[in-house]
Amino acid sequence: MATQTSTGSLRLGSIAPDFEAETTTGSIKFHEFIGDKWVILFSHPEDFTPVCTTELGAFAKLESEFTKRGVKLIGLSANTIESHGLWIKDIDEVSGCNLKFPIIGDKERKIAHAYDMIDYQDTTNVDSKGIAFTIRSVFIIDPKKTIRLIMSYPASTGRNAAEVLRVVDSLQTGDKHRITTPINWVPGDDVIVHPSVTNDEAKTLFPDFRIVKPYLRFTPLPKEKTTAA
Length: 229
Ligand code: BEZ
Known about the structure:
Layout: E1 3-4, E2 19-23, E3 26-29, H1 30-34, E4 38-43, H2 50-61, H3 63-68, E5 71-77, H4 81-95, E6 103-105, H5 110-114, E7 136-141, E8 147-153, H6 161-176, E9 179-180, E10 191-193, H7 199-205, E11 210-213, E12 216-219
Parallel strand pairs: 4-5, 5-6
Antiparallel strand pairs: 1-2, 2-3, 4-7, 7-8, 9-10, 10-12, 11-12
Bound molecules: benzoic acid.
């Protein structure tokens, strides 16, 4: 049975609540599971439902890209791990994938409550007993266990796994360089010099930066230095 050890209103910058849970790949303590990796914790309303099936397949197909970036995936819904296990076979068949990441069985919705994943507003998103399902939440959590992104999607709308990966790229790039990323940015595009960087600093950090407005300065990312063999 899942046990929760932390509650409260979660914001960007909050420490992700720790918990113990049963998953399709065994029992976990969440902070131990995170270890020194990034983690995408994402919930779906229910097993054996159409949109969720397509979403889990899409995340499974992109798992190797997340792994390359040091990111672990973990799903959650208020179903049992036995149900998840049966459903994974369908997901693999429908999406032509091999879903390996764990899915938490949160039948009692303890973790869902701790992470505010319960749908209180959408009266159509309830199970046969009228109990609210989990919504489509995504949490990006960094190795310090800090929540870096929270997304909430309605039951009717499947997410975009590539967008979650894009945000990971933006966050990891911003942690490494003093930059932010503009609308629709993808890796390889120019980035924005962080407002805290003066023009004098920018000349050293980003020799090719250009000023569009005093508050909007674009730059290519500095080339990675390779160590000589
Ligand atoms: C779906 O995954 O298709 C779904 C799940 C719960 C409510 C509505 C749609």
